[in-house]
Design goal:
heterodimer, A: about 325 residues, mainly alpha, MetI-like fold, two-stranded antiparallel ribbon, 2 strands, B: about 350 residues, 2 domains, about 70% helix
């Protein structure tokens, strides 16, 4: 009894703070925690009930792991997992190399004004939506009017390539587009870290006669290694979620390309729109969330081993 | 960061000791110009000669490539449709034409409607999310709040685990009945655990407890303190969140894809997605109306699409040089961790 009383006293004492977090908490409950509860649909055969959300969930029949069994029996489960993981791995490796390279060079360029102009240019694509980017890509890849086929024609290639029907080119196109859009953004954090390195290190190195390359290899890169490690491990933790816009807008939802452009996120989306299999889509989404969660926990554990300072929690 | 790049301006490998620009002029103030040898000691960064040239060419080319597609789309939108049909998308078209924009002018009701929706959603959404995020983040940044650990955790946990798209969709449509409501474009993007944690760190760093303490002694209520003291002190952080959120709302098409199918609620980005169908729809209509075939081909389909891309991207492109600096600074205002 006393405990309850002191709890209410505490709540009363903290009422201003509680009032401040109230709107946010309601949002979190509605848009994050209620959907988490809704994942039970993955273990049910979902049926819409006219009496609303809770009735739909409660009145759907339990089927246990049937949806998961069904999902993993299809070829799709393998394809979407492979695509999601492989693309993300390539993004992590290529993205890291490019971002660090760009950051180092921007810092080393003699003319700082030009350096700033380059950064402005490279960051621009980050602010465009994937819808706009998909049109940009289309101006290059359109079969009859695109720049690429025009250039090929100029080089004497008579048969225009039907880019949106040829799956074999798309791994490159996807990676290229993703890097084009993301490099400027990716390099910002590294550039900030590099700019923050104490100038004395470089001066000492120069007095010892170290050349530029030696300075970069022995000062700049070691100094930003902790940051590289933490950001990379965080990215590894997100390896199971793909950028929906990139894989949905840029290939223009072209069927022949699904084998190389379908990722877990697009699969789940198509599940509710075209296939209409709510329960199996939920199962695919839950599969993604659980593996993603496990990966974040694992990577955080690894970060803790490397350096406690950088662990997320 | 920009200040620091200013300082590294000394790197310029130009042999001339004369102050050429503002940056150099500042150096002159910082370090009296004694000897070029001494000056060199203070310039740890700066490629010289050939490598510098190569890198400038490489980076110049890539920067142009980043802007190029936008310029290319502008050129296409200004190309005559028959020229497009004959020559494809050219960098310098044979015949220029404003036909596409004239054509879009005919569709201006729908376009203006979409523009209005996007602007309303962006303004309202940014307002709602800045208020919600900052209140939440401020509360969990204060040691006086007994339950701050719990509320930090429930926000943080959403970064680690989510219910996935389908349950979210069902909650939004079946429970909250957001389908074809403007709130479907605003609410889903209103909160973001990542921004909450950034703001929490920012409040911890930029709002000293001593100031709040003296205000409390003067008898000010916590809400009053928040509005009168905390907000003015945290403007840079709040501006950053507002900027992130504005861009997020402006570029959002996903929520419209999920929840909106009534044309008067379609935002700009989503309109852009559908423009192919819209132009096709207009074509079909004129076909049914028995309009001549050559008139049909005169409808500037491709150019109109690209013109549409241009007018929906233009606001961002124009504002970009002004907000870019704040964006870059904002990204580095504080780690997520305490």
């Amino acid at each position: 009894m006393n405990r309850i009383k002191s709890f209410f006293q505490d709540v009363y004492k903290n009422r201003v703070w509680l009032l401040m977090v109230l709107p946010g908490t309601i949002w979190l409950l509605l848009f994050s925690y209620l959907p988490m509860f809704g994942t039970v649909i993955a273990f049910k055969n979902f049926r819409y009930d006219p009496n609303g959300f809770f009735a739909s969930i409660l009145n759907s029949e339990w089927v246990g792991f049937e949806n998961f069994k069904f999902l993993f029996n299809t070829n799709d489960a393998w394809i979407i997992t492979r695509n999601t993981v492989l693309y993300n791995l390539v993004f992590i490796v290529v993205g890291l190399v490019l971002a660090v390279f760009v950051a180092i060079v921007l810092n080393e360029l003699a003319n700082k004004r030009l350096s700033k102009i380059y950064q402005t240019g490279m960051l621009f694509p980050h602010f465009l939506s994937w819808v706009v980017v998909s049109y940009f890509v289309f101006t290059f890849l359109s079969v009859d009017r695109g720049l690429l086929n025009n250039i090929l024609l100029w080089f004497g290639v008579e048969d225009p390539i039907s880019w949106y029907n040829e799956a074999k080119y798309w791994p490159f196109i996807i990676v290229l587009t993703s890097m084009w859009k993301g490099v400027g953004y990716g390099s910002i954090v590294y550039l900030a870290a590099i700019v923050g390195i104490d100038k004395n290190y470089y001066e000492a190195a120069m007095i010892d006669g170290a050349n530029k390359w030696q300075q970069i290899r022995n000062i700049t890169i070691p100094m930003i290694t902790p940051l590289i490690v933490i950001l990379t491990i965080l990215n590894v933790g997100r390896i199971f979620s793909a950028d929906f816009g990139l894989f949905f807008q840029v290939p223009r939802d072209s069927g022949p390309l699904y084998s190389v452009t379908n990722v877990i996120d697009t699969y789940v989306y198509r599940g509710i729109t075209t296939m209409g299999d709510i329960s199996m889509s939920t199962a695919a989404g839950l599969y993604q969330s659980i593996v993603g969660f496990a990966l974040v926990m694992l990577t955080n554990y690894l970060v803790q081993k490397v350096d406690k300072e950088y662990a997320l929690f | 960061m920009w200040q620091i790049t200013m300082i590294t301006n000394q790197n310029s490998s130009q042999p001339t000791p004369l102050p050429l620009n503002k940056g150099n002029a500042q150096n002159q103030v910082n370090q009296p110009n004694k000897k070029s040898k001494r000056k060199k000691k203070y310039t740890p960064h700066g490629l010289s000669g050939f490598p510098n040239l190569i890198m400038n060419i490489l980076f110049g080319t890539f920067s142009i490539m980043c802007i190029f597609p936008f310029l290319y789309v502008i050129v296409i939108s200004l190309t005559d449709e028959k020229t497009l049909a004959r020559n494809g998308y050219q960098l310098l078209p044979e015949i220029w034409s404003f036909e596409a924009y004239r054509y879009l002018w005919q569709m201006k009701d729908q376009l203006l409607q979409s523009y209005t929706i996007t602007i309303v959603v962006t303004v309202l959404g940014t307002l709602v999310s800045v208020i919600m995020i900052s209140l939440y983040a401020y509360a969990i940044s204060r040691k006086q709040f007994k339950y701050r650990g719990f509320f930090t955790f429930i926000a943080f946990f959403t970064m680690l685990f989510s219910g996935g798209l389908v349950p979210f969709y069902i909650v939004a449509t079946q429970f909250l009945h957001l389908r074809n409501s403007i709130w479907a474009l605003i609410l889903p993007l209103a909160m973001n655990a990542f921004y909450i944690l950034i703001m929490r760190t920012f409040f911890q760093r930029s709002v000293p407890e001593s100031i709040l303490e003296s205000a409390r002694i003067d008898g000010a209520s916590e809400l009053r303190i928040f509005v009168k003291i905390v907000v003015p002190l945290s403007l840079p952080g709040l501006a950053t969140i507002a900027l992130f959120s504005t861009l997020g709302y402006w570029n959002d098409w996903f929520n419209a894809l999920l929840f909106i199918d009534e044309s008067h609620l379609v935002p700009l980005q989503s309109m852009l997605m559908k423009i192919e169908n819209n132009i096709e729809f207009l074509r079909q209509n004129s076909l049914a109306g028995g309009i001549q075939n050559d008139l049909l081909s005169a409808v500037p389909q491709d150019a109109a699409k690209m013109a549409m891309v241009v007018i929906s991207t233009l606001p961002i492109a124009i504002a970009y040089p002004f907000f870019q600096k704040y964006f870059v600074n904002g990204l580095t205002i504080g780690g997520v961790k305490e």
